[in-house]
Amino acid sequence: MSALTTNPATAATAATGRLRPRTRLRSAAGLLGVPGLLAVGFLVLVAVVAVAAPLLAPADPNFPAPLEAYASPSGAHLMGTDALGRDLLSRLMYGARVAILASVAIIALSTVVGTAVALVSAWVGGVVDAFVSRVLDILFAVPGIIFALAAVSVMGPGPTGVVLGLTLGYTPYVARVVRGATLREVRMDYVDAAWLQGRSGVAICLRHLLPNLRPLIIAQAVSSLGFALIDLSALSFLGLGVQPPAADWGLTMRAGLDSALRGHVGEAVSAGLCLGLLVASVIVLGDRLSKQAEERA
Amino acid sequence: MTLLLFLLRRAATLVVVTLVSSFLVFSLMELAPGSPLSFLLGNRSATPEQVALVTEQYHLDDPFLVRYGAWLGDVLHGDLGRSIAYKQSVTDLLSTRVTTTLLLVGYAGIIITIVGVGLGVLAGSRPGRLDAALTALTTGFLAVPAFVSGVVLIWVFAVQLGWFPAFGGGHGLLDRLRHLTLPAVALSLASSAYLARITRAAVQTQQQAEHVETARSRGLQGGYVMRHHVVRNSLIPITTVLGLTIATLIAGAVVVESVFALDGIGSLLVQAILRSDFVVVQAVILVLVVAFVLVNTLVDIVYTMVDPRISLTAGTGR
């Protein structure tokens, strides 16, 4: 409640009921802080590059020029070229597409499934909840990447198996957190009130519980996104995910290892930086969102 | 008595969980497209003798549950089947490689404990610039995947400086440890950063606790309060995270062993998947899952013993 009086933006909401766009933007900036703003800035940059890669990329990412292998940065190749003479900057730009698309798919799928399982389990309670939480405990003990390795061993190397495996691996994390929060939430008076009004369980879960859990679910999803990115590119690095000649940061890193041994470290450093900065941005943003979700609760 | 009961219950859960996961790992084969026979052979053309051997080994002519029972019986007798790509018994394949993985995970675990707790206590006890710098550093390390730090470490310490070998496992204990140093550092960076964050948060919470305030007002030395009041009470979250970290390290070893071309069970798993050697894949995944479950149970038990306030039989002890 004290937040209402201290935060001018929230006070404005309380007074007028609505928030002017500029005020809302400023209050969001205040909540994020400098590291959070930098993180959001980098995320927006990567997203724009990923979407507009065909427009922005200076060259065809798959155009080989063996005579220009390991060219130093120049006007023609701003970040130089790789072992096959392909333009590194263009490959990194196209690599952002795979990274974002696949990691968002994993987190979106696992968030939807995990939230549904958690809501049903916590709402129904009893034997169902006991069973679900036992299963979650067991799945939780096994790191997500192992599920992906199992999936790939059955479905063959490729992004489909990796995405399905990691989705299965990340679902218990979501379900565990959401289940815990739901169990706290269902004891609240507003749930009893809605129940006494004759609302159905489904309606209460979707209309009342879900909106209240939303900040937590989003924070959890953003935090997991970073780990999904790491696992995803690790599997491509191992040769089990995205296959060459596709432009992918994990694959660039693998090629970068061979190049580094021959004395060319450009690929490894640039792909590593892309990956590290993107994961760091997501972690910083996730931290901020989690802190806010906690303060709200 | 309660302790014995607690341990027995934990052991029972362990057995059930292991059985269930063995069943799931075995069922993986059924999920694969194509017949189990061609899947096990990895779509290789096989001699009739090999076909007969695999059919017999996996009891492919029997119904699914009978097959599972026979397989489980073999596994319990230490027979994990025969690798088709390596033409060797899987148990032999594993036994030569388990040591490398255990050494790697142990080495990384020691680094994580020292660096993670050290940095965490430092950051938690000195608010201000040092804390901010360390927090930025740990966020950075947390964001760097092990294969990226591995490649960078190879470039700096093996290619440029030549202090450590880039690849391979080495022979003899000292040489092995020298070969494992870069992999262990690569494996431990992110987890050290995570442990440092947890430790920092725990130390900060403890410093505001009343018992620490009391200790200070009684005039006890700062260092004494830190060691005997703050750090000791921060141990509970630290042990929990450290235990969970071991599971992450085993999974991380899969990646790190492949970066540094170490002959551990993680790189064996990756090779087996790439060579469609499903007998090996199944065995390694089973071993890994059993390891995770075992580690989790051990952490639970240690956790209960570290903190005498946790009741062994939930509900009644309080």
UniProtKB/TrEMBL annotation, chain A:
<dbReference type="InterPro" id="IPR000515">
    <property type="entry name" value="MetI-like"/>
</dbReference>
<keyword id="KW-0472">Membrane</keyword>
<keyword id="KW-1133">Transmembrane helix</keyword>
<dbReference type="InterPro" id="IPR050366">
    <property type="entry name" value="BP-dependent_transpt_permease"/>
</dbReference>
<feature type="transmembrane region" description="Helical">
    <location>
        <begin position="28"/>
        <end position="57"/>
    </location>
</feature>
<protein>
    <submittedName>
        <fullName>ABC transporter permease</fullName>
    </submittedName>
</protein>
<feature type="domain" description="ABC transmembrane type-1">
    <location>
        <begin position="96"/>
        <end position="286"/>
    </location>
</feature>
<feature type="transmembrane region" description="Helical">
    <location>
        <begin position="216"/>
        <end position="240"/>
    </location>
</feature>
<keyword id="KW-0813">Transport</keyword>
<feature type="transmembrane region" description="Helical">
    <location>
        <begin position="161"/>
        <end position="178"/>
    </location>
</feature>
<feature type="transmembrane region" description="Helical">
    <location>
        <begin position="98"/>
        <end position="123"/>
    </location>
</feature>
<comment type="similarity">
    <text>Belongs to the binding-protein-dependent transport system permease family.</text>
</comment>
<keyword id="KW-0812">Transmembrane</keyword>
<feature type="transmembrane region" description="Helical">
    <location>
        <begin position="268"/>
        <end position="286"/>
    </location>
</feature>
<dbReference type="Pfam" id="PF00528">
    <property type="entry name" value="BPD_transp_1"/>
</dbReference>
<feature type="transmembrane region" description="Helical">
    <location>
        <begin position="135"/>
        <end position="155"/>
    </location>
</feature>
<dbReference type="InterPro" id="IPR035906">
    <property type="entry name" value="MetI-like_sf"/>
</dbReference>
<keyword id="KW-1003">Cell membrane</keyword>
Automatic annotation (TrEMBL), chain B:
<dbReference type="InterPro" id="IPR000515">
    <property type="entry name" value="MetI-like"/>
</dbReference>
<feature type="transmembrane region" description="Helical">
    <location>
        <begin position="235"/>
        <end position="260"/>
    </location>
</feature>
<feature type="transmembrane region" description="Helical">
    <location>
        <begin position="102"/>
        <end position="122"/>
    </location>
</feature>
<feature type="domain" description="ABC transmembrane type-1">
    <location>
        <begin position="98"/>
        <end position="299"/>
    </location>
</feature>
<keyword id="KW-1133">Transmembrane helix</keyword>
<comment type="similarity">
    <text>Belongs to the binding-protein-dependent transport system permease family.</text>
</comment>
<keyword id="KW-0472">Membrane</keyword>
<dbReference type="InterPro" id="IPR035906">
    <property type="entry name" value="MetI-like_sf"/>
</dbReference>
<dbReference type="Pfam" id="PF19300">
    <property type="entry name" value="BPD_transp_1_N"/>
</dbReference>
<feature type="transmembrane region" description="Helical">
    <location>
        <begin position="177"/>
        <end position="196"/>
    </location>
</feature>
<keyword id="KW-0812">Transmembrane</keyword>
<feature type="transmembrane region" description="Helical">
    <location>
        <begin position="12"/>
        <end position="32"/>
    </location>
</feature>
<feature type="transmembrane region" description="Helical">
    <location>
        <begin position="280"/>
        <end position="303"/>
    </location>
</feature>
<feature type="transmembrane region" description="Helical">
    <location>
        <begin position="134"/>
        <end position="157"/>
    </location>
</feature>
<protein>
    <submittedName>
        <fullName>ABC transporter permease</fullName>
    </submittedName>
</protein>
<dbReference type="InterPro" id="IPR045621">
    <property type="entry name" value="BPD_transp_1_N"/>
</dbReference>
<keyword id="KW-1003">Cell membrane</keyword>
<keyword id="KW-0813">Transport</keyword>
<dbReference type="Pfam" id="PF00528">
    <property type="entry name" value="BPD_transp_1"/>
</dbReference>
